[in-house]
Specification:
- With 198 residues, the chain is α+β, with helices and mostly antiparallel strands.
- It folds into two domains: 51 residues, no CATH class; 97 residues, no CATH class.
- The relative contact order is 0.12.
């Protein structure tokens, strides 16, 4: 006798906005960047989790952990990831330069260099430009508004990435997290920032 086909159907699940791929980089709802170590998702209670690894300056670091699949809102393209890493590198270079200017190897205060008329002004980093536009604004701003203002005033323009506002968002959060009370920024509301009050 032939087996009767089952009439049971699987319950419909909410369609996920993000498709996970092993080796891909994903941004979570808080703007943090993660690396997917295993795209196979599994159910834990009512939630779906995926194996992810935190990143620092666009490079995977630390242990692999189970993270909620629904907490990721986009996968970074190769161009987005390149721009993110480029911004991180510029910020590291600017910070290293600032620290070396404060305490030279000789232990003596460094004499200020006088600019000549032929010297080009140094390019401003995205974070420095963001701090400048926030200082000129009476209201907190979203990173997209900051990018538009920075570009309009000629402080900084994106080197060609598609989501410079997302990259800036992550960079500001990273500064707040790593520098704490010394950070130039403070989060005032969801997705909005202002200069930190000292």
């Amino acid at each position: 006798m032939a087996k009767k086909a089952s009439t049971k159907t699987k319950p419909a699940t909410a369609q996920q906005a993000v498709t996970f791929k092993k080796g891909g980089f994903y941004q979570d709802l808080g703007g943090e960047l993660w690396f997917c170590t295993n795209a196979k998702q599994k159910k834990v209670g009512d939630d779906t989790v995926v194996m992810m690894q935190r990143t620092e300056d666009g490079q995977p670091v630390g242990e692999t952990t189970e993270e909620m699949a629904g907490s990721f809102n986009k996968q970074l393209s190769a161009a987005d990831l390149k721009e993110y890493r480029s911004v991180c590198q510029r910020e590291q270079d600017a910070e290293a330069e600032a620290q070396s200017a404060e305490v030279p190897a000789t232990g003596k205060p460094k004499a200020k260099k006088v600019k000549t008329a032929t010297e080009q002004p140094k390019k401003m980093s995205a974070l420095d430009a963001a701090a400048k536009v926030l200082g000129e604004s009476a209201e907190p701003m979203a990173t997209k508004e900051m990018i538009d203002a920075m570009s309009a005033k000629g402080y900084w323009t994106s080197p060609g990435g598609q989501t410079p506002h997302a990259t800036l968002y992550a960079a500001i959060l990273r500064e707040i997290k790593t520098k704490g009370t010394e950070s130039r920024f403070q989060k005032t509301d969801k997705g909005r920032f202002a200069l930190a009050t000292k």
